Amino acid sequence: MTCIKKLAESPGLTSIPSLYTYTTNPKDQEVSEDPEDSIPVIDFSLLTSGTPHQRSQAIEELGKACKDWGFFLLINHGVPERQMEAVIENIREFFDLTEDEKREFEGKNLLDPIRCGTSFNTSLENVFFWRDFLKILINPDDHEFQFPNKPPGFREVSLDYCKRIREVARELLKAISMSLGLEPCYIEKATNLESGLQVFIANLYPPCPQPELAMGLPPHSDHGLLTLVMQNGIGGLQTRHNGNWVNANAIPNSFLVNTADQLEILSNGKYKSNVHRAVVNSKATRISLAIANGPSLETMIRPAPELESKEKAAAYIGMKYKDYVELQQGNQLDGKSCLDRVRAFN
């Protein structure tokens, strides 16, 4: 399968092959310009080092963002900007490797430690997406982390970055636990977060001659707890809010954060996993890095009993996280179709 980068760089490319033509409802191409559709901003420093009043207020704002949006912009998170830039540059260098060099990292199984490819799941798709990817599974219980050995320094820079993201996600989940009226470490313990899976997902979206006909990634929710995204300054991520698509434009040195399916399950539906998509453009290459933070693979995730009641019975059946990941990654991306399979019909 030809990577999209090579196709996009074909001399004289003025239209996309029919395999990449993604049909959308005309209304789905509209993007909200309503000031009311302004993505919430959460100041991480107030969650971790503010006064008790500031922290309480920040937790309340975080809970509101999770409930109303499932999406927020995270600032003052403590990850050095130079480190973020270094990771993006290493990702750029990886995608600049030759086809043969990248082919050794293709991977064949969904839970292979490293998988490099194009689209999402080409073995199942009738329409391909305008995207190349590199996925790396990071399990803290496995001390033999597998990273591509090219470009030089990629492994060291990326692993240190992922450790920092893990700590940021841990603090966010503590605050989210409190916003749900639970003990600060409730989610951490319920998901065995100490052994939680991280997925390093690097995406390349090259310029597309007909961006209105193509799609980088279709509308979907993520399988984990929280996903933290950074990008190279080129927009393209859109989030669904009140039935409208909203551009998720990041400011420098910030993260775009979305809630994912396991958090919706654990919160018994109080916090919904966010539906988002990636659109493409004709001018510039977009590079993004999503770090998906999830439970340990062997942990059974079910609604917190403390969030169940006579009026609100468990809305989801329990499922081992590993099985959920394989279910989502082994099918086509289609909104929240995977989550629909674990809904309890009372």
TrEMBL record:
Residues 195-295 form the Fe2OG dioxygenase domain. Keywords: Iron, Metal-binding, Oxidoreductase, Vitamin C. GO terms for molecular function: L-ascorbic acid binding; metal ion binding; oxidoreductase activity. It holds the Pfam family 2OG-FeII_Oxy. InterPro entries: DIOX_N, IPNS-like_FE2OG_OXY, IPNS-like_sf, Oxoglu/Fe-dep_dioxygenase_dom, Plant_2OG-oxidoreductases. Belongs to the iron/ascorbate-dependent oxidoreductase family. This is Fe2OG dioxygenase domain-containing protein.
